What we know:
9 helices; globular; alpha/beta; 21% strand
Amino acid sequence: MSIKESILEIKNSLPDTVTLVAVSKTKPVSDLEEAYAAGQRIFGENKIQEMTQKWEVMPKDIQWHMIGHVQTNKVKYMSEYVSLVHGVDSFKLLKEINKQAKKHNRVIECLLQMHIAEESTKFGLNESELKDLIASDDFKSLENIKVTGLMGMATFTEDTEQIKKEFGTLKQIYNTLQDIKSTNLDVKILSMGMSGDYKLAIEQGSTMVRIGSSIFGSRNYL
């Protein structure tokens, strides 16, 4: 199946309330161009240098999402153009994104990453840390970022009940934030679900899925 056929098949299967992020990390520009020609405008990368190289040569109506773990010293390289940063797991990182966004007179949208998996290798905040962060005066003082939702990754397991439970936990946390509004907080995105578990994520309330191998296959150029 071609990239175009894969994208159209996935998009046709998604509810209108769910946004598709095509995970294009390690894929050549030619693959992205094929996806673009099929109408895809949101791409997810996990390395800032690679994302920047693609941004420089691809059409400028593309929304670039940073979906990997972000080092604070690399934020400056994407601050001119990145549309959404998925994996924000600390105030330190939020502060740096705010600092670099200000240099470009931009407001960069961010998702706070929650730790919902049993795997200790996953990054993310717990619920208490989340509540403390968004309630703090330091957070409210950040004028060049806007937290627009939450992101989380389930445990890598064949146990679908465990995956559903973890996604369900994240949805419950997401629900508790719906009535909290401030100038830099407007929670409307729940990013959970990848190629292997996105259907379960949608069942549990995901509004954004990150799909790579089901679109591009396993071929890469790195």
